Amino acid sequence: MTTDMTTDTHDQRNNNFEIAHVTVLGTGVLGSEIAYQTAYSGFAVTAYDISEEILEAARTRFEALATRFENEVNGAAGGRAQAALTRIRYSSDLKDAAHDADLVIEAVPEILDLKRDVYQHLGQVAPERTIFATNSSTLLPSQMADSSGRPDRFLAMHFANKIWIHNTAEIVGDPCTDPAVYQTVVAFARRIGMEPIELHKEQPGYVLNALAVPWMGAALKLLIRDIADPETIDKTWRIDKEAPEGPFQNMDRVGLKTVYDIYAASDDEELRAAANYVKQHYIDKGKLGQPTGEGFYRYPAAT
Amino acid sequence: MTTDMTTDTHDQRNNNFEIAHVTVLGTGVLGSEIAYQTAYSGFAVTAYDISEEILEAARTRFEALATRFENEVNGAAGGRAQAALTRIRYSSDLKDAAHDADLVIEAVPEILDLKRDVYQHLGQVAPERTIFATNSSTLLPSQMADSSGRPDRFLAMHFANKIWIHNTAEIVGDPCTDPAVYQTVVAFARRIGMEPIELHKEQPGYVLNALAVPWMGAALKLLIRDIADPETIDKTWRIDKEAPEGPFQNMDRVGLKTVYDIYAASDDEELRAAANYVKQHYIDKGKLGQPTGEGFYRYPAAT
Fold it and tell me: Which residue in chain A has the smallest CA separation from B198?
């Protein structure tokens, strides 16, 4: 980590928390991206997951990210992307992983009880000063803060996939969150190259999904009403909004299992029907979206 | 009009209607764009409006469009954009305007009774063969078809603003529409450079507004709940979707009076409250969106 980052006087004026060591819990797709982006930005990072085997897979993921950064991120070639790998240490022991963390970013599966268990344990083993940030997109900080034993140092920082391009960090406290903690995390987000999206209060779906969920839902309704096909619906949106993607392309990127989960839980009967339509016509046929090569669209191999 | 357009054998195979003369009713912003785009594509166009004074203003609009095409449309400079102006004739007499029309595109104000009156009159003065297409975005063909006296030759063809860039034509019949008429209009849309968006059946808002209305509504809810400000909400969308505009930028472009009209009529109490918020904080202060220089954002003069 470079000296100018640890001694950023602007950050120090705004808060009492210095962030130098960051631990990321969970090395799935987004967890890996968060850990790598943080290491790439000069921080000492500990990647935690539940087994050495999973951590070995994470190592491969980080190496692939380094290659991707070299190809896609300005300035990443010539050693910088590779150097980030040396700033990541691995741990499958939560106490060890958290022992010197200034900030823990949690990206474990979106199961409330699991997250609460993690925070209960983490609250006991992490230093007093450590700030906890959940990357949850579907749960709210107030559903987990108390389990951490430190609700004043608890908030949500929600990242988007392809963090180096979609560089938003939605930052949401609950009423207990210390404003200095909130501002520390806002400043940290900037230091790892994110645009901090400051939410004034809790909102299901935060900003991004509060916009995207009704938009994708409207598209699904047009589909199950047989108004038009996905290609036509997407084309209409792309042309009028001069946007690269329509809603079905977006759903393929999000993954159709996630799409199903979102709408199967809707209050709107038609959206629940749409979720079942997606299950029957796509998920049950192994069409899970872009990563599997087929969803609403077909994708060439290895995209 | 060039010969290759009038003798397009592909079109002739698919239908029994030949389109050579097109009359556009209404010379407002979108009506003018439709008429000019049609003339630019080689058709003989009659622009109809209710007074010579309005038609004089339309003439200025068409000239401005020719200049705009010269600057923005490939191949329009060097005479082609100007030549389109010579293919437009003007009429404030409906019988005269319609007397040789193969297709009438109606773009009069979005008031059902007004449109029905226009179609009742038009049905009496237009030739038997003439197809009627409404550009309505908020009304459905089945609400007007019977007033025309020729429901089999009646459908909706909905254009978007900045027709030369946002070149969608949403085409919607009602159960009475003759399939050959529908296909004639689809082929015509292609011949004037549009992407025909074929809807299998009627849908309020067609495709585009069925997607955009829930998306803008979700953004308004975030605003009136004080979750975040318009700039932050738009930024979040732009970054994640790699899109040029967020929902508030889009609303400024649509115009805030239209936004008010959409949500003031909503079944959703919170959206009606959002409509009132827009009225109080923007419309009542003369902030009507991009054309007036200010809406959710401020715009430099003369945009």
Answer: A228
Beta partners for residue B90, in sequence order:
B47
- A182: part of which helix (H) or strand (E)? helix A179-191
Domain positions in chain A: 21-198, 209-292
pLDDT in tens, chain B (303 residues): 333 444 444 444 444 689 999 999 999 999 999 999 999 999 999 999 999 999 999 999 999 999 999 999 999 999 999 999 999 999 999 999 999 999 999 999 989 999 999 999 999 999 999 999 999 988 999 999 999 999 999 999 999 999 999 999 999 999 999 999 999 999 999 999 999 999 999 999 999 999 999 999 999 999 999 999 999 999 999 999 999 999 999 999 999 999 999 999 999 999 999 999 999 999 999 999 998 899 999 998 754
For tokens 């799409």, the residue is A259
Other CB atoms within a 10 A radius of the CB of residue B56 amount to: 11
CATH of A21-198, one of 3.30.70.20, 3.40.50.460, 3.40.50.720, 2.40.440.10: 3.40.50.720
Half-sphere exposure of residue A222: CA atoms within 13 angstroms, side-chain side: 33
> Which of B236, B250, B266, B267 should be substituted to probe chain A, the one whose Cβ sees the most A Cβ atoms within 10 Å?
B236
Neighbours of A20 (CB within 10 A): 14
Q: Which residues of chain B have a CB within 8 Å of the CB of A227?
A: 199-201, 203, 207, 210
CATH for B209-292, among 2.130.10.10, 1.10.1040.10, 3.50.50.60, 3.10.20.30? 1.10.1040.10
Q: Which residues of B touch A210 (CB under 8 A)?
A: 218, 221-222, 227
Residues of B with CB under 8 A from a CB of A: 160, 165-168, 170, 195, 197-201, 203, 207-208, 210-215, 217-219, 221-222, 225-228, 232-233, 235-237, 239-245, 247, 250
Q: Report the complex ipTM.
A: 0.91
Angle at B223 (CA atoms; ends B222, B228), nearest 5 degrees: 80
